[in-house]
Amino acid sequence: MKVLLLHALPLDERMWEPQLPVLAGRDVHAPKLYDLGSSMDEWALGVLKLVPGRLVAVGASMGGYCAAAIARLAPERLDGIVLVGSRADADAPERRPLREQWIEIAREQGGEGLWEAAAKNFFSAGADPAVVERAHAIVVEQEPEGLIRAIEAIRDRPDSSEAVTSGIPLLVVAGGEDTLIPAEVAEQLAAASPNGRAEVLDGCGHLPSMERPDEFNRILTEWLASLWVACRRWSTRPGSPSGSASPACCLPTCAGRMPIRAGISQVRSRWCSARRRRSPTPRCWRRSPGRWGCGCGGTA
Questions:
Q1: Which end of the chain has fewer surrounding CB within 10 Å, N or C?
Q2: Can you give the pLDDT at residue 227?
Q3: Contacts (Cβ under 8 Å, ≥6 apart) of 46
Q4: Is the pLDDT of residue 246 over 90?
Q5: Which residues, 6 or more positions from 122, have their beta carbon under 8 angstroms from its beta carbon?
Q6: Which pLDDT score, from 0 to 100, does residue 281 have?
Q7: What is the rounded average pLDDT of the residues 123-133?
Q8: Nearest-CA neighbor of 152 among 45, 37, 5, 50?
Q9: Beta strand pairing status for 55-60 and 78-84?
Q10: pLDDT tens digits for 159-213?
Q11: Where exactly does CATH 3.40.50.1820 map onto the chain?
């Protein structure tokens, strides 16, 4: 299973250092987003080009916006999506003046200015000072041009809520003391998805993966393991699309093209005449007059 780690603003891929040991047995990719384009969609397409095949996208704050864009642009590439201190909707119009202010700060003062203006408030009062200092050290190394592109991409991002809640396995992790994106946003987003799950870390700020790595790692690895278990259950069934248990399949597909919409626990089957096997009912099946049609062209 490939795991794509997408960082927050104004940090970079090093924010995921606490997760690397527990993900050591997986194919992990953590790109730096700032140089991949000037919009969230360009970033999404850029990381998909860098990381071929199916994957689980894990995005913190700004990285979550990129993960949501992947869900909107290429849902067939996703085995799951994890949003950490993030959301799926577009930037609110009333936040535009704040974004313009951040752009000006980044242009004149770089990462240090953004740290003082916003990022130092990403952590709760009880956060480990060593963690806060590590974040500060990463932020001050960022180039102003990259930060400006990132703020503009955040400001102009489209709404990806429908794609994120369409049925792709979804985990939303929030800090109970996040002042930027309240925990209620995470709970509402997860509730809107048939495959959604929300986890709130009490007393934590905007970046749970950095502030509370042990708790976050447990939540993430258990959730990833649940995808693998579901994959094995499906792929070892007679007539399954994959034919064998493989980390690459992870979610059942109809003829390898159309990901199912419902949860794996909700999968039902019908007989497909073209492939002479049973095929999952949700999404890949379409009802025509008097018969069911499978995405591969057969009928039931």
A1: C
A2: 87
A3: 31, 33, 36, 37
A4: no
A5: 8, 135, 180, 205, 206, 207
A6: 33
A7: 97
A8: 37
A9: parallel
A10: 999 999 999 999 999 999 999 999 999 999 999 999 999 999 999 999 999 999 9
A11: 2-229
Across the strands, what pairs with 172? 83, 198
Q: d(Cα 149, Cα 35) in Å, to the nearest integer?
A: 9
Long-range contacts of 248-252 (CB under 8 A, 24+ apart): 248/1, 248/53, 248/54, 250/1, 250/54, 250/79, 250/80, 251/54, 251/79, 251/169, 251/227, 252/280
CA-to-CA distance for 72 and 67, rounded, in angstroms? 9
Q: Tell me the residue type at 159.
A: D
State pTM to two decimals: 0.79
Which position has the token pair 């959301």? 87
196 DSSP β-pair partners? 170
Single-letter code of the amino acid located at 135: A
Per the structure block, which two tokens stand in for 142? 């960022």
CA distances from 97 to 91, 119, 236 (A): 11, 17, 54
The sign of the dihedral angle between the CA atoms of 229, 19, 211, 9 is negative
Instruction: Give the tens place of pLDDT for each residue, 31-59.
Output: 999 999 999 999 999 999 999 999 999 99
Residue 265 per-residue DSSP state:
G
The CA distance from 123 to 175, in Å, is: 9
Superfamily of domain 2-229: Alpha/Beta hydrolase fold, catalytic domain (3.40.50.1820)
Residues 6+ apart with CB under 8 A from 277: 239, 271
